[in-house]
Amino acid sequence: MTTQTTPTRAARRLNDHHARTLAGFYPSAVCSRAFGARVRAGQLEITDDFEAWHTVDLNSIEFRDHNGRKIFL
User: Fold this and answer.
1) Which residues pair with 64 in a beta bridge?
2) CA distance readout (Å), 46 to 2, 15, 16, 22
3) What is the DSSP letter of 24?
4) Among 5, 18, 38, 56, which residue carries the largest CB count within 10 Å?
5) What CA dihedral angle connects 32, 71, 40 and 8, to 10 degrees?
6) In terms of Cα–Cα distance, which of 5, 42, 41 is closest to 63?
7) Can you state the percent helix, strand and coil of the chain, rounding each to 5?
8) Using CA atoms, how far apart are residues 38 and 53, in angstroms rounded to an integer?
9) Helix (H, G, I), strand (E, B) or coil at 7
10) Three-state SS at 19
C-alpha cells in the first residue's frame, strides 16, 4: 500500500532535507538542482534561484539527494 503525498507534505520534506544537508535536492525534471519548495494554489513549486518558481507534478517527478538516493515524500 502506498500513500499519496500532498503538496504541503512534499514541500515540508524537501525543505527539511535541504536544511539538514545544505545540498539542495535534485528533481528528475524542471531544473538540475533546487533549493526551496513551496505550495501555491494547491500546487508544489520548486526553485533553483529563489526568483523563478516552477510548478511540478508529484505524480511524474522524483527527487533525489546529493548522493543519488531517492527522497521519499
Assistant:
1) 26, 70
2) 24, 10, 14, 16
3) -
4) 56
5) -170
6) 5
7) 20, 30, 50
8) 9
9) helix
10) helix
Domain boundaries, the chain: 7-62
Residues 10-52: pLDDT tens digits?
Answer: 999 999 999 999 999 999 988 899 999 999 999 999 999 999 9
- Name residue, grid cell 511524474: 60
Number of other CB atoms surrounding residue 37 within 10 Å: 26
pTM above 0.85, yes or no: yes
Q: 516552477: which residue's cell?
A: 54
One-letter amino acid at 53 equals: W
The residues near 63 (Cβ < 8 Å, ≥ 6 apart) are: 14, 25, 26, 27, 28, 70, 71, 73
Kindly report the backbone phi and psi dihedral angles of residue 45, in degrees, each rounded to the nearest multiple of 5, phi listed first: -125, 140
Burial of residue 11, with CB atoms counted within 10 A of its CB: 0-12 exposed, 13-18 middle, 19 or more buried: buried
